[in-house]
Specification:
This protein is α+β, with helices and mostly antiparallel strands. The protein has two domains: 120 residues, no CATH class; 149 residues, no CATH class. It has eight helices and eight strands; from the N terminus they run H-H-H-H-E-H-H-E-H-E-E-E-E-H-E-E. Helix 2 packs antiparallel against helix 3, helix 2 packs parallel to helix 4 and helix 3 packs antiparallel against helix 4.
């Protein structure tokens, strides 16, 4: 299962990210200022979720605690490092030390909780909403940057990603009468991004071919109630498994947003 999952994800990434770009020698580049760091938070989340998935698989198989923590962490580290090497051999990107640091943070977030609680009480979550850009210039630019298919947009369009840290209320306020599944989440997203560091694109000769500096790039912070679906237990093993898988994603709920210097309420946040 581990090998099949690894191969499938690597094949999907190779198709979505690398198929249209020239290969080159291994090199590094500094992308720490790109995409308002949404991609770095994505690395943190992605590595953590890989650790968690592996850990639950080995827990189900009956492996003892320390061994499953180390194997799960090593598997996630190997997978993410392989991706960094793919980036490092791509002319479009390169090995990113900031990505590497975010990967290590994801492993640390997993391992620390597992050692202390034998559980991931504080969960990282992700939500996504598909967006259509009505402005023709933005539509063309988004196709160039993010692709046109659903799975390409799912991976690439950082304007549509929100990452969450979700904690049970009974852990925060020490009230055991509160159910384990009732949580509060803090989220981070960004908008207005049509380039890594600026909304400008240039051709091979350095001429500007896309210029939307009029669109402000903004960070978005959220506070929202949440449900940890993995803490809702039923008599069905299949349903319990499905709820655990779904707990990797933020439960849609109203949110309080702070962005561009002001607060606003969202009736339902995906």
């Amino acid at each position: 299962m581990h090998v099949a999952g690894y191969g499938g994800v690597m094949a999907a990434l190779a198709t979505a990210w690398y198929k249209n770009y020239e290969r080159t020698g291994l090199h590094a580049f500094n992308d720490s200022r790109e995409w308002l760091q949404i991609d770095k938070v994505g690395h943190w989340y992605g590595t953590w979720i890989e650790c968690r998935a592996g850990n639950e698989l080995w827990r189900w198989a009956g492996m003892e605690k320390k061994k499953r923590i180390w194997i799960s962490a090593a598997s996630a580290f190997g997978f993410q490092t392989a991706i960094e090497f793919l980036d490092g051999f791509s002319a479009k990107w390169g090995w990113s030390w900031s990505d590497f640091a975010a990967n290590v943070l994801g492993i640390g977030t997993f391992a620390a909780q597992e050692y202390v609680w034998d559980d991931q009480k504080i969960k990282l979550k992700w939500s996504f909403h598909k967006r259509n850009y009505k402005d023709p210039s933005l539509q063309n630019r988004s196709k160039e940057l993010f692709g046109s298919t659903f799975h390409e947009r799912l991976f690439k369009d950082y304007n549509t990603h929100t990452y969450w840290v979700s904690a049970p209320l009974n852990l925060l306020i020490k009230n055991k009468r509160l159910p384990d599944w009732l949580c509060i989440s803090v989220g981070y997203g960004a908008d207005g991004m049509f380039g890594g560091e600026e909304n400008i694109a240039r051709d091979a000769n350095g001429n500007i071919i896309f210029d939307r500096r009029d669109i402000k790039r903004i960070r978005q912070w959220y506070l929202a109630p949440d449900i940890d679906l993995s803490k809702i237990k039923t008599r069905s093993k299949a349903l319990n498994f499905a709820l655990t898988v779904l707990s990797a994603f933020k439960f849609p709920a109203p949110s309080l947003e702070f962005s561009n210097g002001r607060f606003k309420l969202n009736a339902l946040h995906f």
